[in-house]
Design goal:
Number of helices: 5
CATH architecture of the largest domain: Sandwich
Order of helices and strands: EHEHEEHEEEEEEEHEEEEEEEH
Number of domains: 2
Strand content: 35-45%
Shape: elongated
Helix content: 10-25%
CATH topology of the largest domain: Tumour Suppressor Smad4
CATH class of the largest domain: Mainly Beta
Number of strands: 18
Length: 259
């Protein structure tokens, strides 16, 4: 559990949605608020997109984040309730997530990097299919993958875009990643791979001037990519807090039994 003291410095952050704006005003009146850098816990109000934004924005602070859903799906968040917040924080269970780090080279030779807690994706930019070469730990595994794109998903992100692309759901703590093609045309029967979390994934964009590709880590996009290296960064992490009756591990397990 997160802690047993009821006195906590809380930093409330919220999306710009109407519901979230109203909620943060009400919660601050009851519990007060401090700046994220000075807080013991950050409470994020919004949907999954805003939760990822809050994670990226506050990752350097090393402060646990407890999300309350005022969006649609709310997979990374708890149910919204104004009352009993301190008690819920005391009883919350922790889940540590480590991000994917992508290092990208563009067609101008520039190198850029970004982090993704859900997934890193390569996506075609035009009507023409992307042509990708796939290497794992320095060994070429697919010489030419013809597709709309390809993504690497963490367990936390495996039920999001990865699942929509028919990738596998990965249990939290499994120590693996999903490498999933998006609308693969050749090889037709390749449905992806499950890789060790320590894997070094290298994707090269073939014919990149004719078939431009963008790279996306969560919401950060880099266009006109020629190659990308993807690894889990063991030095960076974020702690999320979940109500005991609906923690992240349970949510991911439930996704495998939804009819």
């Amino acid at each position: 559990m997160f802690g047993q003291t009821l006195k906590k410095k809380i930093a409330f952050v919220a999306s710009q949605g109407t519901n979230a704006s109203a909620a943060i005003t009400s919660l601050v009146k009851v519990y007060g608020t401090v700046e994220p850098a000075d807080a013991d816990v950050i409470v994020a109000l919004g949907g999954d997109g805003f939760m990822l934004e809050a994670i990226h924005r506050n990752m350097a602070h090393g402060i646990p984040i407890y999300g309350m859903n005022l969006g649609t799906v709310g997979f990374l968040l708890n149910e919204f309730e104004e009352d009993h917040l301190l008690e819920r924080l005391d009883q919350a269970e922790t889940e540590t997530l480590r991000p994917l780090h992508m290092l990208v080279t563009t067609d101008s030779g520039m190198k850029q990097d970004a982090y993704g807690f859900n997934e890193v994706s390569l996506l075609r930019q035009t009507r023409q299919a992307a042509h990708l070469q796939v290497s794992i730990d320095g060994k070429v595994r697919i010489e030419r993958l013809i597709c709309d794109g390809c993504l690497v998903a963490t367990p936390a992100g495996s039920t999001a875009y990865n699942l929509s692309a028919h990738g596998p759901i990965l249990p939290i703590g499994s120590g693996v990643l999903a490498l999933t093609p998006i609308s693969a045309f050749r090889p037709r029967r390749w449905q992806g791979a499950v890789l060790k979390q320590s894997a070094h994934i290298h994707l090269s964009v073939l014919d990149h001037y004719k078939r431009p590709v963008s790279a996306v880590a969560d919401a950060h996009e880099i266009r006109n990519v020629t190659e990308i290296d993807i690894v889990v960064d063991p030095e960076k992490e974020v702690t999320l807090l979940f109500d005991p009756n609906h923690n992240l591990e349970e949510r991911i397990l439930n996704e495998q039994f939804i009819p």
